[in-house]
Design goal:
Shape: globular
CATH class: Alpha Beta
CATH superfamily: Glutaredoxin
Order of helices and strands: EHEHEEHH
Number of strands: 4
CATH architecture: 3-Layer(aba) Sandwich
Low-confidence stretches: 97-107
Number of helices: 4
CATH topology: Glutaredoxin
Helix content: 25-40%
Length: about 110
């Protein structure tokens, strides 16, 4: 699974948190460990050549828009918007391995 983000998954002082961070944290809380792809550039405003990085072009090809975060699941499903990614993560928690469950049950 790949999570496309702007510059990173760091926490900001922005009210409500940064969307890329929120999406990443929701996935981690659900037990996922996504590959993080930093697209950089700006996804808002007019389509200026100097702001369109290769990563933003790739997002535009995948989704028809330039905003991140965007999640590409292992099944190839595309989900964008941090709220939708968080909803998906909650509905699709990562499965624990049989060994981990068996070890916990034997204690």
């Amino acid at each position: 699974m790949k999570l496309y983000v702007c510059w990173g998954t760091f926490q900001t002082i922005r009210p409500g948190g940064h969307p890329c961070h929120n999406a990443y944290e929701a996935l981690r809380m659900a037990g996922h460990d996504p590959e993080v792809v930093k697209v950089r550039g700006l996804g808002i405003g007019p389509r200026l050549v100097h702001l369109m990085t290769e990563g933003r072009r790739q997002i535009e090809e995948l989704t028809g828009q330039r905003a991140v975060p965007v999640l590409v699941t292992d099944d190839g499903e595309l989900i964008w918007d941090s709220h939708r990614i968080a909803e998906w993560a909650e509905a699709n928690p990562a499965h624990r391995s049989a060994g981990a469950g068996a070890a916990s049950a034997s204690r």
